[in-house]
């Protein structure tokens, strides 16, 4: 039985392991949408608060929701591009309306997800993850240059700062292991910000103005608005997250030596759906199971849920302290960009790693990967090609993640499922052979 002090310490370790991912997402979205420092601070506080609530829902669980394994929920990077695209073409209220509806979809679709999985085999998942990473690379490079539209965009000091941050992250990954390596991005952000401070590029004015305590309020950015295209986009994002979370559940089952049944997966996905709805209500983000915390469970050998309850409680407390949330807004764009290069590059690498498990010598798999990645990247790189189309169609097709995902799913149905049916129909029955 662990003491309260140890539970808090080990819980803090899990918070630190996922903190970079939890903080970077609101920073990226807030920066891309030109939100004010106060609005970005709210996004971070709301995200940390909802991460904590979502984690507690999953770990403690109820009769119908919650995987009841030592899992931490955090905002999914898959949603970054779509949220920016939706909010840029309409507004944040539309993005949050789509998040709420997509969360309800996850709750209702959880029992059916086993049937949906056949439309998302490894080749489709790998292609989609690769597309997500590639579509985010321009965001990283814009930030590395200082932020699109900024007066010092592309200045040597911004480029050197981004390069230095990336070098620190790579150094930590090369010469350290275990927990230090797990928080290499966070350490890179801290070190890069310290260097930027010495260069006179950091101001703490926003931290001084932020309050010490504040309660996260529902619908901070206005009453949710609903768009069919935005809703479909977020549902696609969450279907991918459901597949990722299912993998995390089974991985946790192996680490904790717990048999994970289909009912457990359904309860876990229902809990995730409830967390996504909460994310929309509190103007946070869609949530998914964080795989880095699975590695930490394996590394420490501490498999008790008490530690995750401690981590969830700490996240809730952090979300109620805007001054601490505002502290992260002092990170310069260039520092953030250097970290993004590593993080988004890892997303691409993860997609490639998934595809490496696929037999690309089969022409069908090769065509699915090639065409979906090409269409997705092309749509994101040349969005003007759809300017002559109706507004709703244009919004859908200009999102490279959506076009790439749809291409992968449709090609999988046409090339793989149809081909199987044709082959099965071509096999002569024993009766016909005998006659």
Sum up the overall morphology in one term: globular
Compute the gyration radius: what is it?
22 Å
The largest sheet has its strands arranged as 1-2
Order of helices and strands: HHEHHHHHHHHHHEHHHHHHHH
What would you say this structure looks like, in words?
This protein is mainly alpha-helical and 435 residues long. The protein has one domain (4-358). The chain contains 20 helices and 2 strands. Strands 1-2 form a two-stranded antiparallel sheet. Helix 1 (4-32) packs across helix 3 (80-89), helix 1 packs across helix 14 and helix 7 packs antiparallel against helix 9. The radius of gyration is 22 Å and the shape is globular. The model is unreliable at 429-435 (pLDDT under 50).
Topology:
Layout: H1 4-32, H2 37-60, E1 73-75, H3 80-89, H4 92-109, H5 113-116, H6 122-144, H7 156-175, H8 178-182, H9 184-198, H10 205-209, H11 228-255, H12 262-281, E2 287-289, H13 291-300, H14 305-319, H15 322-327, H16 333-355, H17 363-381, H18 391-397, H19 400-426, H20 430-434
Antiparallel strand pairs: 1-2
In short, what is this structure?
With 435 residues, the chain is mostly helical. The chain is built from 20 helices and two strands.
Question: What characteristics describe this protein?
Answer:
NCS2, globular, two-stranded antiparallel ribbon, membrane, mainly alpha, 1% strand, cell membrane, transmembrane helix, 435 residues, transmembrane, disordered C terminus
